[in-house]
Write a structure and sequence with these properties.
heterodimer, A: 320 residues, alpha/beta, Rossmann fold, 5-stranded parallel sheet, two-stranded antiparallel ribbon, 7 strands, globular, B: alpha/beta, 5-stranded mixed sheet, 12 helices, 14 strands
C-alpha cells in the first residue's frame, strides 16, 4: 500500500500538528493559562494518524481521555480545539468539556472520554445504529491498555461480535495504565488474543510505524464496510510524557523513556517519506513549520476568545 | 374505553411507538422469545424481528452503553434492565455517559434513550431483586426519572419518554404490572414534569409514588370513613418535578404526608419535604411534614419481614390519622 505524495504530506502535517498541540498544551499549563489536567499523546502520533487515515470524512471515531491526537487526525479545526482546551465559549464544547471531552460531532468525532473504557460500550451501540440506518459508515473505537482489563471491554467485545457491528476497535497500548505496567499483566499480542477468542479478527502492530498501523486498520475498515463485522487492532506504542500532570514517573526509568524516544513515530515516518522520495527534506521542514505556526495561531485565537457566561451555567443540560 | 393491565399498557406503548418510528428499538436480556422476565415484551419479537428486538447476553453495562451509543447517532433505543437492582451494573454508562454527553459536548448531541426497569418489593425475591433506587438517578442532572402508578399513566408517560430527546429512567413497579385500568387504544402523551391529583381532599395531602399511590388511595377510603378527607398527589415524574401542583395542594390542606417504598434515609421524600419547606407552602403548614418510607434494612426474604420493610395500607392509615391530629 504505497502512499501518494499528497498523502505523505498530509499525514506528516497531522503528526506535527499533534506534537505541536501537545507541546503548546504543556506550555500553556505550565504558564498557568489553563487549569485542570491533561493527558498528552506525544509519542503516539502514528497510531492516531495511521488509524484515522483509513477513514472517509463521513466515518466516525470515539476516543479516550488521551484524545488530542485522535481529534486532530479526524480533521478538527485547531482553533476551536485549542479554544476548548482553554475552556472558552467558542470551543468545540463551549468550554464545558475541556481537554478530556473534546468532541466534534459534525466532523464525526463522537468525543473523548474521562472514564477508562467508557467509550467502548457506546461504540457497540453506534455500530448497531449504523447498521440499522444502513449507512455505509464505519467507526473506529479507541481505548488504551488500561481499558483492556475492564469489564466494559470484555462485555463490548461479546456484543460487538453478536451484532456484527461495523467497528474497528483500536487499543493503543502505551504500556502504562497510569502507573500500572501493561507488561505486569498482558502484552499487545495477548490483548489481540482476547479479541480472537471473542471472535474478532485481531492483530497487533508496531504502533510507532504509521505504515504498519495504516495497513492493519485498513483491513479492519474494509471488513467493517463490507459487512464483515468488527475487528481489533492493538497498536504497540509509548507515551513520552507522564499519565497526567500529577505524574512523577516513579514507575519507569529515564533509560526506558529514552529507548522509546529512539522509536519516535514522527522521525520514522519522516525518514520513510524521504527514503521513498515522497517528500524532500525542504518540503518536510516546511510542513513542520506550518504545523507549529498553525498551533501558535490557535493559541492566539484561544487566548483572545471569550469565556462562557456564568449566567449560562445551567444551559444545555437537557435537550428542549 | 377498554380496560387493560399496566403491563399491557407498557407493551402497547412500545409497540405503537415502534410502528410509528423506525428509530425505536428494544435491547435487553431475555426480551425476545422469553418475552422479558415479566413478559412485558412478549410477542414483540414475532412482530418486529431480531433486527429491532435485540436480545443480549448478560451485559448490563454493555447493553446500556450500546443504547447510549445508538442514541448518540439518532436512534431511539429502549433498554430493559431486568431488575432495578442491576442498574448498579449499568450506572457507569447511564450516569457518566448518557446523562452528561449533551452538556459536556456543549450541546452538540442528544441522547434520546429510555431505560426501563422493574423496581420494588413484594414478590418474595429478596435482597437482590427488590430494591427501589430512583433517588440515585434523581440526583443526576441530565437524567429524567419517571415512576408511573396506573395503566393510563404508564402508557402516556412511556410514549412521552420515548419521544423525549433526553435519557429517561422509567421505573415500573412489579406489583403494578397486573393492575387494570382504562387505557385508550390510541397513542397519547402525558407530559413529563406534570403531577396528577389522584384524589381530591381538604384535610391533608399524601404525596406518594408508584405502588404507594395505590396503597394511599386505599388508605384514603378507610380514612374517609373516619371523616378525614385526604388528597392524594402523584408526582409521576420525579425529575423534572411538578412543584407547583405539590405546593398548591399543601397550601390547600396545610398538612402533608410523604409515602414511598424506597428506604427513608436519602430517599425522594427528603427532597419533597425540602421543596415544600422552601416554598410558600411553608407558611400554610399546620403540622410538621411527615414521611413514611422503607425501613432501614435490605429487603428480606421472609414474607412477613418483607411486608414489614415497606409501608402498607394500615401503616399509611395510622400515619395519616396521627397527622390529622398533629398541630405545629
Amino acid at each position: 500500500m504505497t502512499l501518494t505524495k499528497e498523502q505523505a504530506a498530509e499525514y506528516l502535517l497531522q503528526m506535527y500538528q499533534i506534537r505541536a498541540f501537545e507541546e503548546q498544551a504543556e506550555k500553556s499549563y505550565m504558564a498557568g493559562k489553563i487549569h485542570g489536567t491533561m493527558h498528552l499523546s506525544i509519542g503516539q502520533e502514528a497510531s492516531a494518524v495511521g488509524s484515522i487515515s483509513t477513514l472517509e470524512p463521513s466515518d466516525y471515531i470515539i476516543g479516550h481521555h488521551r484524545g488530542h491526537g485522535l481529534t486532530i487526525a479526524k480533521g478538527a479545526d485547531l482553533n476551536l480545539m485549542m479554544a476548548e482546551f482553554y475552556g472558552k465559549e467558542n470551543g468545540y464544547c463551549r468550554g464545558r468539556g475541556g481537554s478530556m471531552h473534546i468532541a466534534d460531532v459534525k466532523g464525526g468525532n463522537l468525543g473523548a472520554n474521562g472514564v477508562v473504557g467508557g467509550g467502548i460500550p457506546m461504540a457497540v451501540g453506534i455500530g448497531i445504529g449504523l447498521k440499522m440506518k444502513a449507512e455505509n459508515r464505519v467507526l473506529l473505537s479507541f481505548f488504551g491498555d488500561g481499558a483492556a482489563s475492564t469489564g466494559a471491554f470484555h462485555e463490548s467485545m461479546i456484543l460487538a461480535v453478536l451484532f456484527q457491528v461495523p467497528v474497528v476497535f483500536i487499543c493503543e497500548n502505551n504500556q502504562y495504565a497510569m502507573s500500572f505496567a501493561a507488561h505486569d499483566w498482558t502484552t499487545s499480542k495477548k490483548i489481540a488474543a482476547h479479541g480472537e477468542l471473542y471472535g474478532l479478527s485481531s492483530t497487533s502492530t508496531d504502533g510507532n510505524d504509521l505504515i504498519q498501523v495504516r495497513e492493519a486498520v485498513q483491513k479492519g475498515v474494509d471488513l467493517a464496510r463490507s459487512g464483515g463485522g468488527p475487528s481489533l487492532v492493538v497498536n504497540d506504542t509509548y507515551r513520552w510524557r507522564g499519565h497526567s500532570k500529577s505524574d512523577r514517573n516513579r514507575y519507569r526509568t529515564n533509560e526506558e523513556i529514552e529507548e522509546w524516544k529512539k522509536k519516535d513515530p514522527i522521525g520514522r515516518f519522516h525518514d520513510y517519506c524521504l527514503k521513498n522520495k515522497l517528500l524532500t527534506e525542504k518540503k518536510a521542514e516546511e510542513i513542520e513549520d506550518k504545523a507549529y505556526a498553525e498551533i501558535e495561531a490557535a493559541r492566539v485565537f484561544a487566548e483572545a476568545s471569550p469565556d462562557p457566561k456564568v449566567e449560562a451555567l445551567e444551559e444545555g443540560v437537557y435537550a428542549p | 374505553m377498554r380496560e387493560i393491565t399496566y403491563l399491557e399498557a407498557v407493551r402497547e406503548a412500545m409497540t405503537q411507538e415502534m410502528e410509528r418510528d423506525s428509530r425505536v428499538f428494544l435491547i435487553g436480556e431475555d426480551i425476545g422469545e422469553y418475552g422479558g422476565a415479566f413478559q412485558v415484551s412478549y410477542g414483540m419479537l414475532e412482530k418486529f424481528g431480531h433486527e429491532r428486538i435485540l436480545d443480549t447476553p448478560i451485559t448490563e453495562l454493555g447493553l446500556t452503553g450500546a443504547a447510549t451509543g445508538a442514541a448518540l447517532i439518532g436512534m431511539r433505543p429502549i433498554a430493559e434492565i431486568m431488575f432495578m437492582d442491576f442498574t448498579t451494573l449499568a450506572s457507569e454508562q447511564l450516569v457518566n455517559q448518557a446523562a452528561k454527553l449533551r452538556f459536556m459536548f456543549g450541546g452538540q448531541s442528544t441522547v434520546p434513550l429510555v431505560l426501563r426497569t422493574p423496581a420494588g418489593s413484594g414478590t418474595g425475591a429478596a435482597e437482590h431483586h427488590s430494591q427501589s433506587f430512583e433517588n440515585w438517578f434523581v440526583h443526576v442532572p441530565g437524567l429524567k426519572v419517571v415512576m408511573p402508578s396506573t395503566p393510563y399513566d404508564v402508557k402516556g408517560l412511556l410514549i412521552s419518554s420515548i419521544r423525549d430527546d433526553n435519557p429517561v429512567v422509567f421505573i415500573e413497579h412489579k406489583l403494578l404490572y397486573k393492575t387494570k385500568g382504562d387505557v385508550p387504544e390510541e397513542m397519547y402523551e402525558i407530559p413529563l414534569g406534570k403531577a396528577d391529583i389522584k384524589r381530591e381532599g381538604k384535610d391533608l395531602t399524601i404525596i406518594a409514588t408508584a405502588i404507594m399511590v395505590k396503597k394511599s388511595l386505599e388508605a384514603a377510603e378507610v380514612l374517609a370513613g373516619e371523616g378525614i378527607d385526604v388528597e392524594v398527589v402523584d408526582p409521576r415524574t420525579l425529575r423534572p418535578l411538578d412543584t407547583e401542583t405539590i405546593v398548591n395542594s399543601v397550601k390547600k390542606t396545610g398538612k402533608v404526608l410523604i409515602v414511598h417504598e424506597a428506604v427513608k434515609t436519602g430517599g425522594f421524600g427528603g427532597e419533597l419535604a425540602a421543596v415544600i419547606a422552601e416554598s410558600e407552602a411553608f407558611g400554610y403548614l399546620e403540622a410538621p411534614i411527615l414521611r413514611l418510607a422503607g425501613r432501614e434494612v435490605p429487603i428480606p426474604y421472609n414474607r412477613e419481614l418483607e411486608a414489614a420493610a415497606v409501608p402498607q395500607v394500615d401503616d399509611i392509615v395510622a400515619k395519616a390519622r396521627e397527622l390529622a391530629t398533629l398541630k405545629v
